[in-house]
Amino acid sequence: MTRSSFFLISWRRASYKQKYTLCCMSSSSREEALLSEQSTPVNLRFIEFESSPESSQNRQCTTHPPVILLHGLLGQKRNFDTVGRSLAKQLRLSRRVLAVDLRNHGENRHDWRDDMSYASMASDIVALLDTHGLNDAVLVGHSMGGKVAQATALLHPHRVSGLVVLDIAPVAYTQEDGSWKAVQQIIHALHTIDLSKTKSRREVDVALRQSGVEDPALRAFVMTNLDVRASSTSSSGGVSNSNDPASMQWKINLPSIVSQLDVLAGFELPALDPNTSMQYHGDTFIISGGASRFIRLGHMEIISRFFPNHMLTTVRGVGHWVHAEAPDD
Q1: How far apart are CA 24 and CA 255, in angstroms?
Q2: What's the pLDDT band for 319 if we cut at 50, 70, 90?
Q3: Cα–Cα distance for residue pair 247/253, rounded to 1 Å
Q4: How confident is the model over 174-188, as pLDDT tens digits?
Q5: E strands within 39-184?
């Protein structure tokens, strides 16, 4: 199966954030602050993949829903460069192709949030559609982005014209799941690194290796979140020294990610109608990595319950990063 075919099959088958010092607030004020944060979507940053000036003109005239690519935990919109550029060329007469930085990732430093519930991240996607005058979109999500895509489809089905999920199930993962345990270990390894005491990328790489992240490719991926530009202010993801041109900070909101790991591992969604089962009846294409354990036989019942019109395929010999390991499959 080619890269274009697995996307096309699924389609055809169907303000700056105000910081709250919670410890100094009364319980009622704290609750109001958290509710305010949860009810206000993040203005997500994104890129659009273009193949030629002619394609841009054609896309402005199209009525077909765009494709929106959603990265995984510790990822960013540029993770989809290869797939996005390829799709933009192949689908240039019919669809726009966008890749988004999800909240607390990438270029969304303007609006770091404490809340990373999937309902809130789904509202970010809907706000993106509203802001840019888009009625609906085909959502393509990997890992955490796959859960965001699934949550958006379940909570706002009329805004999702098709769904492609890369190697994640709409289930809660636990410490008993080796794959999720490895994710937690990486996050905690990042959290133990004091960037104020490191002077180079190499030192950060060594610290990650000593913390148990032994795979050099995985360390390289994680370090795409390292910003070595000078900054005059400290960020919640790291410490920066305005007098040091080599000061470093994380591009991700690491403290919030650490505090929300259990939320990210889960898949809790608010019941919109207690008398109606939550389902997305649109075309859903789920792609599993054959060497990955994020989608297992035991997950099929709940996948079928949420997405009755789904199709599942497995790409043999690849792990969790399906789109990166086998971009031509």
Answers
A1: 19
A2: confident
A3: 17
A4: 988 888 988 999 999
A5: 46-48, 67-70, 97-100, 137-142, 160-166
Enumerate the β-bridge partners of residue 311: 285
Helices (H), 193-231: 201-210, 216-222
1 burial class (0-12, 13-18, 19+ CB within 10 angstroms)?
exposed
The rounded distance, in Å, linking the Cα atoms of 160 and 282 is 8
Cβ–Cβ under 8 Å, residues 311 and 189: no
Question: H-helix or E-strand containing 184?
Answer: helix 178-192
How far apart are alpha carbons 152 and 21 in whole angstroms? 30
Lowest mean pLDDT among 56-65, 91-100, 207-216, 262-271: 56-65
Element at 313 (helix H, strand E): strand 310-315
- Range scoring the smallest mean pLDDT among 81-90, 201-210, 243-252, 255-264: 243-252
What is the residue whose two structure tokens read 């993040």? 42
Rg of the chain over Cα atoms, rounded to whole angstroms, equals 20
The token pair at 49 is 């993949």
Query: Measured between alpha carbons, how far is 25 from 32 in angstroms, rounded to an integer?
Result: 10
Neighbours of 260 (CB within 10 A): 18
Of residues 116, 174, 154, the one with CA closest to residue 293: 174
312 φ/ψ angles, rounded to the nearest 5 degrees: -115, 135
